[in-house]
Structures are given as C-alpha cells and as structure tokens.
Amino acid sequence: MPYKRRSDLPESVRDALPPHAEGIYKEAFNSAYEQYGHDEARAHRIAWGALKRKYHKDEQTGKWVEGPSEDE
Prior knowledge:
Blueprint: H1 11-16, H2 19-35, H3 40-51, E1 55-57, E2 64-66
Antiparallel strand pairs: 1-2
Helix pairs in contact: 2-3
C-alpha cells in the first residue's frame, strides 16, 4: 500500500534512514507501487535502488549518509 507519511514507512526503513532519505524512499515506493500494478516487493526494491542514487551506507558507522560512496 502507498505511504502517506514518512512515519507510515516500515520500522526497518525508519530505523535505518535519515529523514531526507525516508522521503526519497517513500516517493519512489509510491510511484513504483502504482506503476507496477501494486507489486509491493518490487516497489520496495525500486525504492532502495532510488535511495542508493543519493545515499550510501558508511562502512565505518553503518549509517546511511548522503553522497557517493568512497568506492565511486
């Protein structure tokens, strides 16, 4: 189901991401959910992919941070 607010996101997403990243995830999920016939699993995969364009998981802290990873 589409998410109306960031607070509606799954706890696993809310606990992992900073607020701006939650917004990216929510918008990408909602768009993919509608576009791909309410396929929730696919929408979550697409949302993570969209998020990874702007954020990466810091290897030292394990937190999601904005910007390219050091590998790029």
